[in-house]
Design goal:
alpha+beta, two-stranded antiparallel sheet, 12-stranded antiparallel barrel, 18 strands
């Protein structure tokens, strides 16, 4: 038990550290962007102008040439999107649906700030940071609307609780259950170890009656904040094209959403039709054993891209890619075409507007409890009868008085248990969206 407590504390410290990293990186993005930009524009002082001209004149041409051969470029972009989608998976839109008890949709309103910073050396090495920071619904919310003894705890039946109180049935029964401790009916404290007998000193399971009330679940959008950290090397192989090899880590603040994981990757920009279509083959290998986010052990994609009107004030960048996943997670173990994603980005000076679409042809890859999970432990009514029907639990049909009325009617109906399960599943399920759409607006900066 104490070992588990230590592990939980370590995980808590680890994810708190990840959150601090995410916010620190975001702050550094702003400081770096605007401070360097201001330095570049701050040339109003005549003495400064004179000094800069003098420095240029007196500089050694050979030294300047060496600097040009070995220099660092910093590219920064700031973007706001209505949904953070990656490889056909909604990182923020689906989570917001669960938080706000809304059906899953193709166009979410989970506004997210996405800052990206890349430091590139002329040798080919680069380091990149990409964060996703939710801008809406960051606080935890009471989604299940139930009486509980602690956040995320099981539902406490108020009628049963009141009846035992009125009958003054305070003492434990033969099974050890009492008014304030009844593991069968989810009446126990958050400190209770259900694998051990109740003990007022070593395993206090009795509920403090003053703590029985509705609680907010761990579902705030702040828990979706994440950070990609990439280290890679790009090599121009001449007539053989361009190769890139590297690794990245994705850190997530809260483990109730998707776990931290790591991948190694190799990209090959093919030498044929490079100017016209820039064909690129990419493969990623998952090294993290726990692929709790639903992503696969092997992901391979092929993409085409082209820039239209590159010599005009307004240009258009088009990119289309198709990705295949081998083993979507360690439980479902399904493979297939993961996503077909298309992006159109309009650029004017440093500003851009993007329109994006992801099609998920093999929807069975997403039909599992790791992609579509619930953010409350009170999930007794939630069922997923099949991972092959493209259906999942509709967050708007799980909790609330109107839904409870329907479930009570089904449970009390004079029908077989199998029919009740089927009826509940049909009521609470929805089709998983095959299409995802999102729009982004932002600005690019280069230093």
């Amino acid at each position: 038990m104490f070992g588990n407590i230590r592990m939980e504390r370590q995980e808590g410290l680890f994810y708190k550290l990840n959150l601090k990293i995410v916010y620190t990186i975001s702050l550094l993005f702003h400081i770096l962007s605007f401070q360097i930009y201001a330095q570049q524009k701050n040339i109003t002082n005549p003495k400064q102008k004179s000094q800069e001209i003098k420095t240029v004149i007196e500089s050694d041409p050979i030294e300047e040439e060496e600097k040009e051969k070995s220099s660092v470029t910093i590219d920064v972009s700031h973007e706001i999107v209505n949904d953070y989608v990656w490889r056909g998976q909604s990182f923020t839109g689906d989570f917001l649906s669960r938080r706000d008890n809304l059906p899953y949709s193709s166009f979410a309103q989970a506004y997210t700030y996405v800052p990206i910073a890349r430091v590139t050396h002329t040798s080919g090495f680069y380091f990149e940071l990409e964060a996703n920071l939710a801008m809406k619904g960051r606080a935890d919310r009471d989604s299940d609307q139930r009486l509980q003894a602690f956040p995320g705890g099981g539902q406490i039946d108020s009628n049963r609780f009141i009846n035992r109180y009125v009958s003054e049935n305070y003492l434990p029964d033969a099974q050890g259950n009492s008014l304030f401790y009844d593991r069968t009916n989810n009446v126990y404290s958050d400190k209770c170890n259900l694998s051990l007998p109740e003990n007022p000193f070593t395993n206090r399971c009795a509920v403090d009656p003053t703590k029985i009330r509705p609680y907010a679940e761990k579902n705030g959008m702040a828990r979706t904040d994440g950070l990609f950290t990439t280290f890679a090397y790009e090599m121009d192989a001449g007539k053989f094209g361009t190769f890139t090899a590297g690794t990245w880590w994705y850190f997530k603040k809260d483990r109730s959403s998707k776990y931290t994981w790591n991948e190694f990757f190799i990209w090959w920009e093919l030498p044929w039709f490079k100017e016209l279509l820039n064909p690129t083959l990419q493969t990623f290998t998952q090294t993290s054993y726990d692929v709790g986010g639903g992503y696969g052990n092997q992901y391979t994609s092929f993409s085409l891209s082209h820039t239209f009107f590159s010599d005009k004030p307004v240009s258009l960048e088009w990119t289309s890619s198709a990705g295949y996943v081998y083993v979507n997670n360690n439980v479902s173990k399904k493979s297939g075409v993961n996503d077909i994603t298309t992006n159109f980005k309009f650029l004017w000076k440093d500003y851009f507007l993007s329109f994006n679409h992801a099609y998920r042809p093999d929807i069975d890859l997403y039909d599992n409890n790791r992609n579509f999970f619930t953010t409350s432990d009170t999930t007794g009514l939630v069922t997923n009868l099949s991972e092959r029907d493209g259906r999942t639990a509709d967050p708007s049909k799980l909790y609330g008085a109107s839904n409870d009325f329907v479930y009570t009617a089904i449970n009390q109906a004079n029908i077989g248990e199998a029919v009740k399960v089927f009826a509940r599943d049909q009521y609470q399920s929805q089709m998983i969206p095959r299409h995802l759409f999102w729009i982004g607006i932002g600005v690019n900066q280069t230093f």
